[in-house]
Each structure stands twice: as C-alpha cells, then as structure tokens.
Amino acid sequence: LDKTVVNKIAAGEIIIAPANALKEMLENSIDASSSSISVLVKDGGLKLLQITDNGTGIEKDDLPILCERFTTSKLSKFEDLTSISTYGFRGEALASVSHISHLTVTTKTKKDDCAWKCQYSDGKLVPLNPNSKTTDPKPVAGKDGTQFTVEDLFYNVPSRKRTFKSYNDEFNKILDVVGRYAIHTDNVGFSLKKFSESHYALVTRNNQQIKDRVRTVYGSIVSNELIDIKVPESDEYGLQSVTGLISNLNYNNKKNIQPIFFINNRLVSCDPLKKYIHNLYSVFLPKGSKPFIYMSLLINPNLVDVNVHPTKREVRFLYEDEIIEKICNVIQEELSKIDTSRSFQTQAILPHLNQLKKNNQSSMENVKQTSKQEIQIQNSDLNLYKQVRNDSAQSKITSYLNSNDNDNNDNNEDDEDDEDDEDDEDDEDKDDEEEDDDDKNNTNSEKNIDNKTNVEPIEIVNELDTENNNLIDLESNGKYQFSAKERVDVNLTSIITLRENVEKSINKELTETFANLIYVGIVDEVKRIAAIQYDVKLYLVDYSMISYNLFYQIGLSDFNNFGKIYLDEPISIKELLIFVNKAESKVFDEKTPEDPNFKLPNSQSFDLGSILKIFINMEEMLNEYFSIEIDITSSPDDPQLVSLPLLVKGYIPDKSKLPIFFYRLGTKVNWEDETECLDNILKELALFYVPNVLPSSYSKNEEKIKEYNAKIEFLFTVIKKRFLAKEELQKSVVEVANLPSLYKCFERC
C-alpha cells in the first residue's frame, strides 16, 4: 500500500471521533505541565476543535518532525514503557490528526521571544498561506504554551464523517471527556465552550477540591452523596495507592454516569472492576439504580501494560483479581457502615394548605369541604382505569361457620339491643345501618366460635331408601367437638416426596393471583365456573379443579393430623357399596348383594368381599393417617364407618358422595406400593371434598341456592390463604376483562 493510504488507515484506528482527538491533545497539554487548558468547539468538533494550554511549549527546532509518525519525547527505547509516567508514548496522535484534518499549531516556550505558528498535512509542514511556498514556522504574537487548532476533521474520509448524525451528541462526548480529566487532574484548570457562544459549558479551577470539581461537572445531586474511598497499599501485588469517591446509599440519579477509572493517571475503562462494584451495589440499591464511581489506581509501572489498545482506553495489569478483591472489600465495609438509614425526597400532599391557613376560615365545615375538593383535584390526575376496586366490607371466613342454638338466642338478644340503639340514632343513613348490621353479624359469628366448647358430634343419617336409590337426609345440623391433640411430625419418605413434587410444579404468578383474589361470584353452577378479581383484571376459574388441587394439598400438608367428623350412628360400608351398584345398574336383584362375587353391569370388577377385606385389613392405617375410623368389632364381616376426616374447619363435604368415595377407595387405590397408595387415597379424599354440581331440583329453591353460594364463597377464602397453584392449572383460569381495556372502549370506570 501507498504510505499515505497506510497513514490514513492508522489514523482511523486512533482517531475514531472528535472526542478521541481531543483526548489525545488534552493528554499532550497535561504532559506539558499546563495549569490551564481551554477548549473551543464548533459543530461538535468536526468543523473546529481548538485546545489552548499554558504549558512548556514546543521547541522551534522540533516543529518540522512534530507530526511525523512514531515521533515522541516521552521515551527513547521500549524498556521505558515499564516506568513511563506520561500519557503519550507512541507518537501517533498528532500524526493521525494531521492525516484526517487541517492541523495548525501555535507554540511558545519561556525562552522564546515570540510564538511560532505552522500548519501540517499528512504529517508534514505545509505553507500557512496557499500563495506562499515556504513551510517554515511563522513568528507570531502569543503566550507561553501551545495551541492546537483542528479544522475540518475527517474531510478526506467521507464515509466516517457521514456516521456523525448529531453535533450535540459529539459535543456531549467532548464535555464528558473534559469533565473526567477535570475531576482527576487537580493541578489543572479546564474550560470548555461552543464557538460563538458567550457562556462556558464547563469551567474548573486548578487546585480545586475534588468534591467541588465533581459538583461543577455533574452537579450537587452527585457531589452531596459522595463518600471517600482509600485502599491500603500492597507491596505483594504492586498496589501503591487507590483513592476515589463513590456514591452513598441515598444516591438516586436518573442519569446513568459511567464509572471514571484512572490507572496510573490514564483514563481507561476497566470492565472487570466495574462489574464487581456494580454487583456489590446491587445488594444495597433499588433495581435499576447505578452508583457514581470515581477511582484512581496507582500500580507499579513494571506490572502494567499500557500498550494494548489503539486508543489507549484499556490497560492490563498483574494481580487483577486480587487488587479488585481488595478494592471491593473496602467498598463493602464502607457501605455496611452507612447502611443504617436512608433519606427519601418528600412532596407535600396538599399544595394549597398555606393558602387555607391564610384565609383563617372559622368554620370547620368549610375546611372539610375545601379539603375534599383538593383531594378530588389530586385524584383526577391519577389513572382511574388503573385503580383496583374491591369490596372493603368483605366477609370474614368465620362468618360462614354454623352457630349453635344457645348462641343464636344470644345473637337475637344482641340484635334486639342493636336495633334499639339504631332507633336512637335517627341521623344515620340506610347504607350505614346495613354496614353496621354486617359488622354485628361478623362479631356474633366470632363469639359463636369462641363459645363452642361442649357441643355434640355432627349427625349424619345413614338410612337407605331402597326404592328411590338415595341416601335419606344427608344434611346435618353440624357442630364441632374439640379434643386436645398434639401435631404429629411426619417423616415418611413417600409423603416428603409427594410434597416436593407439588413444590416443583408451583406457578408463582398464578399463586399470587389466588393469594390476592377478590371473590366476585358463581357464574355457572353446572359447569362450576366462578368469577374472581385480581388487581385490575377479571378471571373465570374452574372451581371444581381448583378445589380438587386445594384439598389434595391440604391433605398432604396436614397428613396424619386431620380432625374428625363423627357420625351420629355408624354407617355400614357394605351397604354403601351395594348402594353404588344399585345406582349404577338401575335394576336391583335382591339376591345379588348377598353374592360376594357379583359384578357391575359395565363389566368392571366389583368383588364386594375383597373390598370389604381391604377396609378391614387397613382399618388401623386409615384411622391413624386419614382419620377414617372403621369399627370391625361389632360385625367382622360388615365394617362400620364411624368418622370421616375434617380437612377444613367450617367446610363439610357432600355426604351423598360417600358411596362412590368408598367404592373408589376399594377399586382405584394401589394398596401394594406405599407412595402410590397414599397418593391415591389423598386424591380420592380431595375428590370427595370437591363441591358437587348444584342439583337441578334446587334451581328454584332460593334457600338452597343461598347455602350453596355461601359454601363456594367460603371455599375461596380458604383458597386465598392456602392454595399453591400448579402450572397445569393455567388452563383452568381465563382472563375475561381488564380495566385498561374497558376504559379504552367506554372511557369511564
């Protein structure tokens, strides 16, 4: 390649943007022991980039070779890199600038009587005046120091120039570079302004305190929240010193400021150190917040390689991990010391409060009305369609527990007293009266629970109506009987495994939905569909599937610790099984039940003797683990059901499902394998507890419908407290509406 082409390619690697050219010339000025550096920018530095310093200047004899490649005064041999303390060392910066712009240099040393001005192109001196033939530097008036004037940057590289779309973006990059050097270099004053503008974008003084320089560059929102960091030196790792500033835990700046790292006074980006510090802050700061970091590391030059990147933005040093660990340990210690309190910005809720005080309104009623108006004004600014609306007077779980007769009498007396009190209060609204009634009912229900100490067992009639194939009077006037029983810790491997299987399949989002649901009501009693609200969304849920999983989970969590529902009189399990066959076949042969080997019409195996034998043999296990108490003493061939498990206090399963429950226990459970056996029984128990479809005969019975609705509503209060939703249940929950979408249609809430 032609030498000119080679130089242009090399210049494109070193000078990527105006900010890179500025950085190279800033470092030259700092190396020249300048105490003041001013920068003038036009069109983001593409049209004009001028850097003026008051440093030592450049000797006139050195000007002819100033912009030649690999020309430097910073070192003479490669070994000097191991001890170099200046910014420049390759001698490529000015050469690269001269190949892609019109570069003019004006310089004066202290011993010179005047300044010298010259112009460069492609690394060589060119005439200052197109009509002149001489390339010698021209004497001009000037101050001590050097002025670099870069014009028409990338004029001969149009493809690069087209990539710069915004002058403001390039100026902001220049401002960022100058600001970083202004913070680090305390013995130099910096100034930056745009061409033709009177005010400066940035001005710092030399020997200014570092926090004052940070305030000048980034504002008080940063400088007021800084703490000093100092890491002890370490001869083992060649670490001479680490000083800097980091933000405290109150820092909250929406503008993300990239960390400022200087290693041996070189502005670099140290990604490993940045990553470790950000990870450290993530423990203390809210998600998305980034800290302010300025850090200056001095490391033994023998352990640092500065020549690893064309633009010098990266360096490599030995013992990187060890040094980073020491720095992070110090930061961790400092942050832990101040992690005791936080400061938060506050805003007055009532902006017109002072005006109210000045008016000296004498009437409290007027003050209340004014306050209400202010609140309404503020609420109008909110997104109404995002507000969650629910019932503030939602019923308690305890309101659905049945009360005994004595308590009912007490309640009636209380109600009468309450009515007398209400009559005395003529100013109350009807709505307030209704709310008071609800509160009283809830209170009375709670009293009823507390008073239930000596009560009778739950009654269940066990007579069979052989003509109508139905159990007679399966409703009961249920009452609780409490008995002292210590909770048993279950260590069965099979139960632990089943619990782990449930935990692995949990859907967190769906579980949160059920944990915070607001029950709306039943949509379809036949399909067992109910509506619930969560946040601003309305869902339809299959409560039969939900309740099945709920009771299975309760069975697992309370295994071997169930309560008991005692029957008024024992029920013959044999008669229950015969009843199943009678309901299935529709044709009853009185001789068939006496035959222990009779079969169902659908050819399913129904060995009555074998099933009864299972219940007789498993009687102790069923009683201990599941509270299914079976009496085999009165009639060894006809076991009697004494009690059923109580999974949830206040919820009694539908006893019409008893026959099919015992039929499935006898035919659907694998009694040979422990894990499968316990899992099968728990699933059958959950199926037994699932609420039945509302019978069609109850469709016009308002009392029955009300009882059914109350039962389902109580069930959802249990779901809200104890249910863990599995992944497979997503198909049982369907979103049907949400407030933001409805607002788009109706523009009202």
From TrEMBL:
Domain DNA mismatch repair protein S5: 214-336
Subcellular localization(s) per the UniProt record: Nucleus
A single cellular component GO annotation: MutLbeta complex
Keyword vocabulary terms for this entry: DNA damage, DNA repair, Nucleus
Skewed-composition ranges (Acidic residues): 407-439
Chief location: nucleus
Transmembrane segments annotated in the record for this chain: none
Pfam families for the chain: DNA_mis_repair (PF01119), HATPase_c_3 (PF13589), Mlh1_C (PF16413)
Signal peptide interval: none
SMART domains: DNA_mis_repair (SM01340)
Family statement drawn from the similarity comment of this UniProt entry: Belongs to the DNA mismatch repair MutL/HexB family.
Name of the protein in question: DNA mismatch repair protein MutL
